[in-house]
Amino acid sequence: MQSNNPIKIGQNHDVIVVGSGPAGSAASCYAARDGHRVLLVDRATFPRDKICGDALGWKTLSFLREFEMSPEGFTEDVAPFNGLRMSSPNGNDATIILPENSEEYYPEGWCQRREIFDYTLFKKAKEMVEKTGGTVIEGFTVKEIIYSDDKSKILGIRGQKKSTDGSVEHLEFNAPLTIGAGGYNCPVSRSLIGDAFEEPLTNSNHYAAAYRQYWSGVSGCSNQIEVHFIDGIAPGYFWIFPVSDGVVNVGLGSLQKDLDARSMKLRKMMDYVINESPKFAPRFANATPIGNGKGYKLPLGSPRKKSPSGFQPRRSAMAGGMLIGDSASLIDPFSGEGIGNAVHSAKIAISQFSTDYLSEGFPEEAAVEYQKQLWKEMGHEMSHSAMLQTFLRSRFLMNRFVSRVERKEILQNLLFDLTARRTSREDAPSKIRILFALLF
After folding, report:
1. With CB atoms counted within 10 Å of each terminal CB, which end of the chain scores lower, N or C?
2. Quick count: other Cβ atoms within 10 Å of Cβ 192?
């Protein structure tokens, strides 16, 4: 740092949270509820857009209800959906509707633009953090993760806050625990994994890419979310999700390794579907795009056969630091949904932090326990979704899935489990049962 820009040592906190999206806001809520003094920082100023499919799964809805933020109380641009429409490369179509009176599933799922949804969570987190003596700083860019001299423990963060007059304030904060919740490119994740342990941050076998754009006036839309496997695009998929009256979230996603093997990029693939495909071009003939399309990366939670760290899906903690949400590579490998796993991992992370650690810092043994607990609670679901992703990479099985899903309850429940379960499933069907349902 330059001498004419001195570093100001900020007030110490119990927990530093880097990133104010769903993962960071949820972690801040849980930590504040437990009485911890939280520093929540984000490089953005809210409200801000976040590239996503905008569907809210059952884990997210459960979190909202836990903090008295039920989506039924949201009044701005919420789109409920009651089922799922699908199509396969050979032209099969299927529609499945959520059961209205079920002990297992909510009768509706929800979609809401992330700009609105994240702002709602952020305001809740800010309220709770400040009520317990914590601090929230928007427009703060983390420049450095502070380590102990032997680099065995994270001690805090250094960064800068740009004021409205253009001046830059350099700040340093210390805490027993620093949580990385800044998405796939989180500075805490990059530093913890790449610098402290020199392990790979990305792996094309466990990364997806997606492209999203809002549209109005798309014909044939209903109150179901749509997922389509299109010839020439599969095993990637095309989606249309309702987000408000007359407006839909349109996107396309694919595994990174499949994109690397193609000559066509996501944007060109999207242009083909909207402008040239026989099935969808007519639906967009009189539609209007809203703003520009944007691409983003999805770090998947699929299990690694040879994880360099020995932890699944990859390293997510060390003494003084934890990673949650996308920065811990926890996006569902099958659905691409990440908000629910983000808030789930936030809850697990804070449950591992104790007031006993306030004087000496979050210890290595607690970091190991967090990584074990994370996979214990989420590993079965991640492995199951990775299995489904593998199945549907087969054109034959993909066609069979869509042709049979309307009359095979086991296949319907696989999809409902991702969007509308009331509680976590303990008895997910085995690979053999799923294959049997597809083949016979």
Report:
1. C
2. 28
Bridge-partner residues for 157, per DSSP?
145, 173
Residue with structure tokens 């695009």? 233
The three state secondary structure string of the chain is: CCCCCCEEECCCCCEEEECCCHHHHHHHHHHHHCCCCEEEEECCCCCCCCCCCCEECHHHHHHHHHCCCCHHHCCCCEEEECEEEEECCCCCEEEEECCCCCCCECCCEEEECHHHHHHHHHHHHHHHHHHCCCEEEECEEEEEEEECCCCCCEEEEEEEEECCCCCEEEEEEECCEEEECCCCCCHHHHHHHHHHCCCCCCCHHHEEEEEEEEEECCCCCCCCEEEECCCCCCCCEEEEEEEECCEEEEEEEEEHHHHHCCCCCHHHHHHHHHHCCCCCHHHHCCCEEEEEEEEEEEEECCCCCCCCCCCCCCCCEECCEEECHHHHCCECCCCCCCHHHHHHHHHHHHHCCCHHHCCCCCCHHHHHHHHHHHHHHHHHHHHHHHHHHHHCCCHHHHHHHHHHCCCCHHHHHHHHHHHCECCCCCCCCCHHHHHHHHHC
* Strand ranges across the sheet with 78-81: 55-56, 109-112, 78-81
pLDDT in tens, 346-399: 999 999 999 999 999 999 999 999 999 999 999 988 998 898 888 888 999 999
